[in-house]
What we know:
10 strands, alpha+beta
Amino acid sequence: MLLSACGGDEQPADPPEPEDALTATPTAAPTAAPDDESVTTEASETTSSPTDEGAAIPEMPEEAEENTEEGAEAFARHYIDVLNAASQDPSTPALDELAEPDCKTCANFNDSVTALAEQGHRTEGPIAEPVNAVTTLRDSTARSSIRIRQLGPAVINESGEVVRPSQDAKEVELVFRLQHDGSWKVTEILLDES
């Protein structure tokens, strides 16, 4: 299971079949304005831990509530943690509350997790691992560009049988557009494979 993103004026793709869920499709990622302040960080440990039944949905870190660059980045990383956990235990919906309703990529991620649940499938491990990030903040909006390693875990059924073998890992950049209105929400996610 790999990540797929769309954004801008593009129409979202139909939800993928569970075996193809979250497959990467390139979308050009916009660059930040040169006068934006930015914070760069390296990978940190995720807040979820896999179990035999999948992964527990991670708690929102306190920092992810703050209207700061660090808070925006912590929120974007939290979204990745929740996506990882949901792919390992698709019966637990958790992505909707983190995104605005018009985030097409977020809807596609939700559809992918729903498709896994309907098929009785899940990933054998996390699908993405943050490598580093650069975040910029302007008033109550942020852009968090997170380099991730797509891990390509196997997809398994309820009996633990592999229904889609693991795929080679690769690195891509996810660009999160965020809005803070009392709390952060994802408004758009773009994918840059360059």
